[in-house]
Every structure is written in C-alpha cells, then in structure tokens.
Amino acid sequence: MFLSRRATQAEYFDLPTRTPSEVAAAFGELARVNRIFWFAESFQRYIPRALGRDRCRSLSLLDLGAGDGSLGRVLSQWSAKRGWAWEVTSLDINPLALQLNRAGNNVVGSATALPFRDGSFDVVIASQMTHHLIRDEEVCQHFREAWRVTRDLLLLNDVHRNVAIYFVLGCVLHLFKFSKELRSDGLLSVERGWRVHEWQRLARRAGIQEAEVFLYFGARILLRARRGALQQPLAAGLDRPELKSQSFTPAPLAESSAR
User: Fold this and answer.
1) Which whole-number Å values give the CA distances from 204 to 146, 193, 201, 209, 250, in the listed order?
2) Contact 145, 113 (CB under 8 A)
3) pLDDT in tens, 37-90
4) How many domains does the chain have?
5) Is residue 5 part of a domain?
6) Beta partners for residue 62, in sequence order
7) The CATH number of the domain where 233 resides is what?
8) Is residue 231 assigned to a domain?
C-alpha cells in the first residue's frame, strides 16, 4: 500500500557533489517553503508552554541538522521581541550549509555523535532532520544523543507520512512554481517521513521513557520529553492542538535538514 512503509531513496538535497552556489540556491527555495508552512510555530508554541515564561528568559538551544541556521535565527528574533535571550547553537554535518549562517554559532558534526558533554543545553530541537536518516539504529542513536545533551527539554518534529499531506504538498509546490528538484525532494520527504507508533518504538529503544509522541495538526510528528525531575503535568486540553495522540547507510550529507 502507498506510504505504508518508509522510502529509502536518497534526496537530491543530500547529494555530496553539490557546489556552494547550488547549496545556497537550495536553501533559498527551502526558505520559501518554510514560510508557507510556518516551520518554527511548533517550537514557539511548546518551548514556553513546557518551560514557563520565567524559565524562557534565558535559554541555550541546540538545533540539530540546522542547515543554514534559519530556524535558530527565527527563534532568536522571536524570543528577543519578548525580552528573552535565546542562544542557539546550529549543528550540521554539511559545512557548506553552515557557511550560509554567517553570524551564527555553528558546529560541524553528526547528530548521531554529538561533540558535547552531557546536559550541555537547556533545550535540544530538530526540525525535519530525522527522515534523512535511514536505518533504525541511526535514528535511535540520534534520539539517544539528543537526549544525552539535553538539560531540560527535548523537542523534535518531522513530516507525517500520509497520503493527504503528500497531495497537498505536491499541489502547493506546483502552484508556487518551485524547481523540479525541490518538488521531487518535497514529496520524497513525505515518503521518508514517520508515523507516531514508529517514533514511539524508536524512542523507547533509545531509552527515552519520558517521550510523548503525537500528531501536530495531522501534518507533523512531534516528540516531546522533559527530564524526569523537571517534568510537570500539562494542563488538560490546553496544550494539544493535534488531531489525536497515538500513544544503504546514508551519505554524510543526509543529516542536513531539508526543512
């Protein structure tokens, strides 16, 4: 059945042979897609709700698969308007992507082997990075490493693998006249996306017993976890916009986030 299983085909976005100008052009197009689909909204919603406004006054964040650092820039600007100081570190395995984040705090590295000590960051985030990994073992290691360096909150999201999103995205990419390569990669990202039960299973394997995995407006999968001693009960009904809750080794560039 269509989309019943994840695709393993490599995306054009991840080709290691792309030139700096091609990488810059790809992220330029991706920025347009991100604006259409409000890619930062789930983080703007859930970080303050999880931590509280007082805690949000000063935070260190690690963005995994950060690409050109666009998510970190949006969150830093958004938090500054509220009088908060969010310091974002952008990690990506692709140095050409990070070079586009000229004023950022950039680290070249793998999301499956983070070059940081335990509990180095208040919050660890990733947006649509995980589908660039193929094997379950790699995803578990990515989850495990993200949880290891998180001092308080872990918040990951990725595309939900379903037919409706596939066709809506295809129509949007065609309507707005995106390039053939981006249209192909966008649909392939859905094919390589996730279901709730898959992330639940992988989070348990990674040892994140605190993980809550759920659908976000039917379009994305979110994984949210707080360190046990800091975890607080959530107000029923105030925090869940989702429709429902359901309790080849990749090339090096495959961790760069095609957001």
Assistant:
1) 14, 19, 5, 6, 23
2) yes
3) 889 999 999 999 999 999 999 999 999 999 999 999 999 999 999 999 999 999
4) 1
5) no
6) 89, 124
7) 3.40.50.150
8) yes
